[in-house]
Recover the amino acids of this structure.
């Protein structure tokens, strides 16, 4: 893992011999070197660990905020299984301007996690700070266990009577592959506006007053109701950076009524630019057909949608 001139950390992996290295998608370029993801960065701390019998990577990178005319770095601890990414939280001291860091992990009965980092002083001088992060291993274990439990439930497609996870109760109707699956929005709403990612990554924001959680998902009612999953607008750090190059978005939906309008947008993806450029848009029409738009090209599909039943829809970018 190395900070690069493009403004972010590139991550590489080796098959084991250490002679050949390849880009570690989808987590490469997730972490930005600076607040605006420009220029060189400092060395990050990272180490491999086996948590809940799963191989993961723990890492620390500074997150910058403006203080006066300058930017100050506070280290965050992250955990990733090389697909999902979770921000465990702040780990450097508030009064410090954190720079380069290292992580030391010891497994076994005396499990321990130690952080060493540079505190930038006036001029070009630095102080070295050591902090125990052993207490952070417990929340990390809970996150990793949540990933494993969700994977197992989706892969095995447990019945509605035996499934142990409320988030997918009455949803699972067939085995769902989890390789490459980085996020899942199900039926967990908090504060009425936050749609929780069951893999504890990026949450979605729901809009409209008539949005409710049901046993099978989230129901949107009314013209203004909907949700936005801001996978590309997280600022310095972008857990779903891979979506800039390649992604697939899959949803199970139920349409409860024929629209009065000619068509209603159901699913889509837009660029995080000033124009909100649409990558694709899937709509359903009042004559019972799907309408798929890529850029300015519109296709009306022969496949018809129907009222009341569950239907699987998908869209993507790149080779997704």
């Amino acid at each position: 893992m190395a900070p690069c001139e493009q403004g972010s950390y590139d991550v590489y992996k080796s098959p084991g011999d250490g002679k050949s290295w390849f880009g570690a998608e989808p987590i490469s370029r997730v972490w930005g070197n600076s607040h605006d993801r420009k220029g060189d960065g400092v060395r990050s701390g990272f180490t491999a660990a086996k948590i809940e019998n799963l191989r993961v990577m723990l890492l620390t990178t500074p997150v910058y905020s403006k203080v006066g005319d300058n930017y100050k770095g506070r280290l965050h601890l992250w955990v990733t299984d090389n697909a999902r990414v979770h921000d465990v939280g702040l780990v450097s001291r508030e009064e410090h301007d954190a720079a380069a860091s290292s992580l030391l992990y010891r497994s076994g009965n005396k499990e321990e996690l130690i952080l060493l980092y540079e505190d930038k002083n006036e001029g070009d001088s630095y102080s070295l700070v050591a902090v125990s992060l052993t207490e952070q291993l417990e929340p990390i274990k809970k996150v990793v266990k949540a990933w494993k439990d969700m994977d197992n439930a989706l892969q095995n497609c447990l019945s509605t009577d035996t499934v142990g996870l409320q988030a997918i109760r009455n949803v699972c109707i067939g085995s769902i592959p989890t390789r490459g699956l980085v996020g899942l929005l199900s039926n967990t709403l908090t504060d009425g506006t936050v749609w929780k990612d069951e893999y504890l990554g990026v949450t979605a924001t729901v809009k409209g007053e008539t949005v409710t959680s049901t046993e099978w998902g989230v129901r949107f009612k009314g013209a203004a109701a909907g949700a936005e999953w801001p996978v590309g607008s997280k600022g310095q750090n972008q857990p779903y950076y891979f979506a800039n190059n390649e992604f697939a978005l899959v949803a199970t939906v139920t349409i409860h009524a024929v629209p009065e309008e000619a068509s209603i947008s159901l699913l889509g993806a837009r660029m995080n630019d000033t124009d909100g450029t649409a990558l694709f848009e899937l709509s359903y029409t009042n004559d019972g057909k799907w309408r798929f738009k890529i850029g300015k090209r519109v296709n009306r599909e022969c496949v018809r949608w129907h009222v009341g039943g569950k239907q699987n829809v998908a869209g993507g970018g790149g080779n997704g």
About this structure: The first helix runs from residue 137 to 156. The longest strand covers residues 54-67.
